[in-house]
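Appendix B, example 12.
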Amino acid sequence: MLHSRPVNRFLFVLVTLAILGSACNMPTPTTTTATTISPATNPPPIPSLTPTLAPQVTTVTPTVQPTGTSPSPNPTSTGAPPNPTYLDDRSTPTGLILSYVNAINLKQYLRAYSYWRSGSLTQTFDQFQQGYQNTASVLVTLGTISGDAGAGQMYYTVPAVLVAQTTAGEIQTFSACYTLHLSNPGIQTEPPFIPMGINSGAAKPAANGSIPANLLAHACDGFPQGTPINPAPVTHPGDITPANFLDDRSTPQEVLSSYFNAVNRKEYARAYSYWEDAGTSQNVPPFSQFQQGYANTASVQITTGQARSDAGAGQLYYTLPAVLKSKNADGSAQTFSACYTFHISQPAIQATQPFRPLAIRSATAKSVPNNSDTSALLGQACVGQP
């Protein structure tokens, strides 16, 4: 089993100085098809929607259980493109680290701070944010990720090479190692759900121009390591079957797919976490009632249409049509035409903890004949919605 190692504060600041941003961009929606889901009790009415999130990012992350026995010879790289795509993906250790760097590059420092597990940092948020003031951009290369599990806990060790550019134009290279932790979602049976997070991190300066593979080979020396995961874990956004683990809030489609993936895996506390203000909003029933609503659901398939977005006063909103095809425990089938709304405050202007990610705000659904035309349903599902 992997254990966390205290963060070297000096080296951590060096890493901090190595990661940055550009303006806040969020994903433009794309049509996606998932498999297996199920609607709970009748979804609440749907308020108006108005967003403009950044474009969806489909780059990396698979199931939570570590697999593989030999290290991958090819590191995974991701840079800071001219217009970085918004990525908020905790499906796998790869997705989490790339999302962390993505947040820094977009200057969404509260989001970056939220990827660290509670209590894992000795820095306050203000200190954390200040550490990035001289960072202009960063390129990260990931090495072979290792993982281990025990007593319902999952641990990962992630070697990385960071090549950063400061606001003064200076290039800095670092060899870094992060440890991540996730309590098995299947045993998190009550809210709040705690997603995968960074437990610890350490970095040391390296010569510019160093061969990444050489740095990655020793980046995590001294850190407990588990079984190498090969090939590298990547996200499978269209797969919401129980065999896959999807925890991605990059776009409305990914949030909805992650929601029903949680339902299909019977991870109801996680499913509940995708609703905005769950437990305190009139749009979301108490958790016990929410969970009971899925008691007779066996599986479902979802097909989503094109999300409509709008924005105003720093708030981003989405409306997303969907068709749900569920199978019940008694073998019967049901089809629903649904419309979901999503909300997020602009990540770049969120400055007070906790960071509030993209979430489902409300939904409406109606039962339709099982042989209904899916395309026609998608075209009409959100008609009349703001």
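The chain has a mean pLDDT of 82. The longest strand covers residues 153-166.
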